[in-house]
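Recap from last week: sequence in, structure out.
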Amino acid sequence: MPTKSSAKSPRKTPTKPRKSKVYTISLPPDMARYAESVAKEESRTMSEVFRNAMRSYQSRREQTRKWLDEVAEFVKTLPPTPYTKEDVPRLVKEVRAEMRAERERQARIAE
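Predicted structure tokens:
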């Protein structure tokens, strides 16, 4: 009678290497409930929900970067300003004072 160690085990078919990477993530309870409700409502797996969320995040991030690049290019076309960073607090105070004076003027007119 063959011993357990000498018994031939059925051959396993070689498995293909996984193409996706597996992550374990932590979510706050409210976010976890929301993700689970989305998965249930859309008849999707949690993996599908998170893949879709990452695609959305990636798209928005790329759009934001593109927009910021466009703004940076536009700013380069503007004529130089004589103001420095040190001038900003003074300019803010001046503009606020002008706005306050205009509101007071409008209030006097309305009386």
